[in-house]
């Protein structure tokens, strides 16, 4: 505990340097708040209801699939009443907190969604017709009308076609798009569909966790010229309208909103159905809160404590809070998430209990998983906007040295979108529950490097924003923290659990992991 | 992204080697210009792939400068260069360029398995970056081996900020060469472009001129490959947009392009696919 306090005082000194007196007072209050309000949340009902007058703790643990996720608010605890992140500021009763639950690492797990459905008979604002159902025109009392949310944790994202951002003219897309299969009915719907009066495309995506944002918002270090150019094609990064500098694009899977404020404004208008724009003060409150939240797994049911003396230094949310953002981690020192050497050979006493033996075996498995993640190379091939961005096809790398190279976070550091094969055929996991589109690119446009000019996709991804053929199916990699608390995985929820996630990669890249290696990887990912 | 950084270092080393060999071997034995499927070669479990192409029974190594674009299976390559002494990737070295052609060719899909005959390489934090960066990484590695908590500290220092350009200011030109039918400038040239923009700002340059070119490549069999008509303009406009975003006023930027493709001779034709950026104080 002494160490914990010291670390936070040191951290405070850096952040509040205007005056020593103010600094000491502010930081002392934060530390006290942390000590008082650190807690393991009530396991019986972790759901945080919009508008519920609760205290956001400075540090809290929440039960998850394999242990407990820990969420830290670095500014200390506070009463959330009236705070716009927690308040139903729209017309449908939702708040930001509805889809960004602390118990789910500030994301939203399908287990939580199902519990909410059962507890409220589907009446919770989470299931609002606008995007909490497969289509607003469906009978909302039927479970089937919310199947994508209940089965895969997917929110309907509806975007104008042709692409058009607020206040801007529509882009001239490089491709035509046709609805081939429409299991939700929404893309052919006369009111909400592609051929409606307001042509709209509906795709279905997982909410991303609102945590550890400093790693997403800082331009990359150590990979010039990716601090001002897209790595892929060496076009300019967009300008952050709030700072006048370049924007990172790590915030959203399709990059449609560049900053927390822009995302909040967009989310309020769409997900929350707010009829009035958020005030600048509200936007600032939301941004300040989001930038102060860190989430990571803190405890494993078998491996037990993941932080503290003798634990790998990259685990737990404090490592993220104190870490340096936007740095390359794929080197023999950092190993992305820091060293796991201390768990490679678990010291288990002869008279150890069965639980201690299991703990030791689990920790050894995690350490092996880290090695596989970092060192086991395989041929990465035919990934649009990746292999064709100068790297070569195929490109031989490991998970860590390939796409998940950001220190402590595990997303791709250089801002670039890629088509891993999550959305586009033939690589996508069969998904008869999702819409299927046929994209035909104009002959004058650069084609997708490995799929050409006719592409079948469940989600055109970035191309719904840019209108570019080469962007069809492409998305931004996402962070790898707090995974155990927020299944299912991938932007379309196609991996129900971490094993299915590992299986996808194994199949996609013909890696050939054996059963033991797969379990080691699952264990490793579960403690991040 | 780091992956490229590492590979770039390796490629840079190989590139330097070919440049050295080029100087040592005079005159060049022969020019080559042909289109073929690239072939990937696995060099071992812990090392990078390398690429070759075969023409008339002879295998040539395909090595480009860092971030210029590594060959891709599913696409043919335009190989242009001068034959050098020595070998790489089990094939004859050439000094030149290998351009990935944009159209898909599913027949280009051969990966030679690792057979131990070719020594591979892999980049790393200890042999990349500036001497200060390498020394820091070495020292951190030593300290982290004793104290694992240091393993989450960044291993790569930010390079020191560039010193502001100082007078006297003179005219400077940067030439950027491109793969065939591509407007993607390689990373190292983009870094130089940023430095040139800083130079132009410091010099309060009256003019920064961007001139785009497209070119024809003459192949050994007599065929000619001509870049698309819009390519010179696309290259020029893209570079002009970047320097503007880097702080050069539109008033100072002059952008133009040569509509006609530069004729090919079958030797060094890749050097004509370029943009020239000239700063006039």
Ordered list of secondary-structure elements with their pairings:
The complex is a heterodimer of chains A (528) and B (281).
Chain A: H1 2-15, H2 20-37, E1 39-40, E2 55-56, E3 59-63, E4 67-73, E5 78-79, H3 96-99, H4 110-120, H5 129-132, H6 147-152, E6 155-160, E7 175-181, E8 200-205, H7 214-217, H8 260-270, H9 280-290, E9 293-300, E10 304-305, H10 317-322, H11 354-375, E11 378-380, H12 387-391, E12 395-397, H13 399-402, E13 436-441, E14 454-457, H14 463-466, H15 498-508, H16 515-526
Chain B: H1 2-24, E1 31-36, E2 38-41, E3 50-55, E4 58-61, E5 75-88, E6 91-104, E7 110-112, H2 131-146, E8 172-177, H3 187-202, E9 207-212, E10 216-218, E11 224-226, H4 231-245, E12 253-257, E13 274-280
Parallel strand pairs in B: 2-7, 9-12
Antiparallel strand pairs in B: 1-5, 2-3, 3-4, 5-6, 8-13, 9-13, 10-11
Core attributes:
heterodimer, A: alpha+beta, three-stranded antiparallel β-sheet, 14 strands, disordered N terminus, B: 281 residues, alpha+beta, 60s Ribosomal Protein L30, Chain: A, 3 domains, four-stranded mixed β-sheet, 29% strand
Describe this structure in words.
The complex is a heterodimer of chains A (528) and B (281). Chain A has 16 helices and 14 strands. Chain A is α+β, with helices and mostly antiparallel strands and 528 residues long. Chain A has a five-stranded mixed beta sheet. In chain A, helix 11 crosses helix 16 and helix 15 (498-508) packs across helix 16 (515-526). Chain A starts with a helix and ends with a helix. The model of chain A is unreliable at 1-38 (pLDDT under 50). Chain B folds into three domains: 31-112; 123-159, no CATH class; 161-280, OmpA-like domain (60s Ribosomal Protein L30, Chain: A, 2-Layer Sandwich), CATH 3.30.1330.60. Chain B is 25% helix and 29% strand. Chain B contains four helices and 13 strands. Chain B has helices spanning 2-24, 131-146, 187-202, 231-245; strands at 31-36, 38-41, 50-55, 58-61, 75-88, 91-104, 110-112, 172-177, 207-212, 216-218, 224-226, 253-257, 274-280. In chain B, the strands form four sheets. Chain B has a four-stranded mixed beta sheet, with no helix packed on it. In chain B, strands 8-13-9-12 form a four-stranded mixed beta sheet, with helices on one face. Chain B has a three-stranded antiparallel beta sheet with strand order 1-5-6. Chain B is flat and about 55 Å long. In chain B, 43% of the residues are buried. Classes of the chains: A alpha+beta (528), B alpha+beta (281). At the A-B interface, helix 12 and strand 12 of A face helix 1, strand 6, helix 2, helix 3 and helix 4 of B.
């Amino acid at each position: 505990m002494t160490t914990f306090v010291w670390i936070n005082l040191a951290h405070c000194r850096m952040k509040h340097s205007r005056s020593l007196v103010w600094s000491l007072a502010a930081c002392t209050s934060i530390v006290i708040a942390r000590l008082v309000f650190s807690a393991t949340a009530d396991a019986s009902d972790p759901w945080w209801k919009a508008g519920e007058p609760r205290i956001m703790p400075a540090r809290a643990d929440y039960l998850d699939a394999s242990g407990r996720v820990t969420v830290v608010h670095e500014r200390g605890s506070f009463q959330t009443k009236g705070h716009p992140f927690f308040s139903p500021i729209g017309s449908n009763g939702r708040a930001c907190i509805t889809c960004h639950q602390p118990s789910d690492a500030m994301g939203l797990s399908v287990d939580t969604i199902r519990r909410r459905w059962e507890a409220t008979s589907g009446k919770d604002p989470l299931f609002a017709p606008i995007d909490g159902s497969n289509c607003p025109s469906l009978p909302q009392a039927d479970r089937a009308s919310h199947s994508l949310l209940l089965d895969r944790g997917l929110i309907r994202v509806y975007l104008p076609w042709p692409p058009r951002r607020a206040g801007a003219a529509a882009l001239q897309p490089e491709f035509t798009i046709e609805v081939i299969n429409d299991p939700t009915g929404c893309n052919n719907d006369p009111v909400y569909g592609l051929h409606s009066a307001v042509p709209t495309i509906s795709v279905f995506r997982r909410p991303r966790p609102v945590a550890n944002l400093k790693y997403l918002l800082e331009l990359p270090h150590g990979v010039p010229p990716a601090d001002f150019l897209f790595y892929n094609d060496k076009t300019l990064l967009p300008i952050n309208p709030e700072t006048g500098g370049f924007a990172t694009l790590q915030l959203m899977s399709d990059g449609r909103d560049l900053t927390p404020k822009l995302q909040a404004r967009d989310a309020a208008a769409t997900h929350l159905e707010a009829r009035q724009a958020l005030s600048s003060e509200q936007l600032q409150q939301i941004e300040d809160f989001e930038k102060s939240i860190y989430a990571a797994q803190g405890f494993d049911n078998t491996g037990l404590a993941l932080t503290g003396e003798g634990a790998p230094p990259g685990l737990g949310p404090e490592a993220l809070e104190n870490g340096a953002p936007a740095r390359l981690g794929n080197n023999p020192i950092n190993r992305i998430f820091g060293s796991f050497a201390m768990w490679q050979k678990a010291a288990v006493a002869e008279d150890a209990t069965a639980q201690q033996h299991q703990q030791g075996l689990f920790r050894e498995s995690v350490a092996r998983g880290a090695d596989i993640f970092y060192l086991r190379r395989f041929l990465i091939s035919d990934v649009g906007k990746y292999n064709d961005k100068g790297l070569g096809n195929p490109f031989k790398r490991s998970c860590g040295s390939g796409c998940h190279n950001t220190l402590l976070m595990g997303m791709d550091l250089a801002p670039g979108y890629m088509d891993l094969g999550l959305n586009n055929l033939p690589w996508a996991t069969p998904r008869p529950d999702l819409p299927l589109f046929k994209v035909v690119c104009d002959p004058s446009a650069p084609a997708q490097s490995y799929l050409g000019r006719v592409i079948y996709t469940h989600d055109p991804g970035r191309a719904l924003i840019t209108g570019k053929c080469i962007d069809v199916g492409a998305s931004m990699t996402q962070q790898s923290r707090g995974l155990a608390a927020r299944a299912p995985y991938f932007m379309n929820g196609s991996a129900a659990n971490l094993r299915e996630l590992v299986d996808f990669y194994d199949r996609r890249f013909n890696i050939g992991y054996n059963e033991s290696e797969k379990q080691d990887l699952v264990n490793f990912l579960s403690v991040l | 992204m780091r992956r490229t950084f590492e590979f770039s270092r390796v490629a840079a080393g190989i590139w330097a080697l070919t440049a050295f060999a080029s100087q040592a071997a005079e005159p060049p034995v022969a020019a080559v210009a042909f289109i073929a499927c690239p072939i990937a070669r696995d060099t071992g479990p812990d090392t990078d792939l390398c690429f070759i192409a075969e023409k008339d029974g002879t295998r040539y190594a395909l090595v480009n400068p860092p971030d210029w674009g590594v060959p891709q299976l599913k696409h043919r390559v335009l190989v242009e260069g001068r034959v050098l002494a020595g070998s790489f990737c089990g094939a004859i070295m050439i000094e030149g360029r290998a351009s990935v052609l944009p159209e898909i060719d599913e027949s280009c899909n051969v990966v030679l398995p690792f057979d131990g005959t070719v020594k591979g390489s892999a980049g790393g934090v200890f042999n990349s970056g500036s001497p200060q960066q390498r020394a820091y990484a070495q020292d951190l590695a030593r300290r982290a081996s004793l104290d694992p908590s240091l393993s989450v500290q960044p291993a790569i220092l930010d390079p020191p900020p560039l010193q502001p350009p100082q007078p006297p200011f003179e005219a400077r030109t940067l030439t950027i060469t491109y793969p065939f039918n591509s407007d993607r400038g390689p990373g190292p040239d983009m870094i130089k472009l940023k430095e040139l923009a800083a130079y132009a700002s410091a010099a309060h340059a009256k003019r920064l001129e961007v001139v785009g070119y497209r070119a024809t490549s003459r192949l050994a069999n007599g065929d000619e490959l001509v870049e698309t008509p819009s390519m010179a303009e696309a290259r020029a406009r893209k570079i002009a947009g970047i320097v503007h975003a880097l702080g050069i006023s539109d008033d100072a930027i002059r952008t133009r392009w040569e509509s006609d493709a530069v004729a090919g001779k079958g030797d060094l034709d890749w050097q004509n696919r370029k943009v020239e950026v000239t700063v006039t104080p």
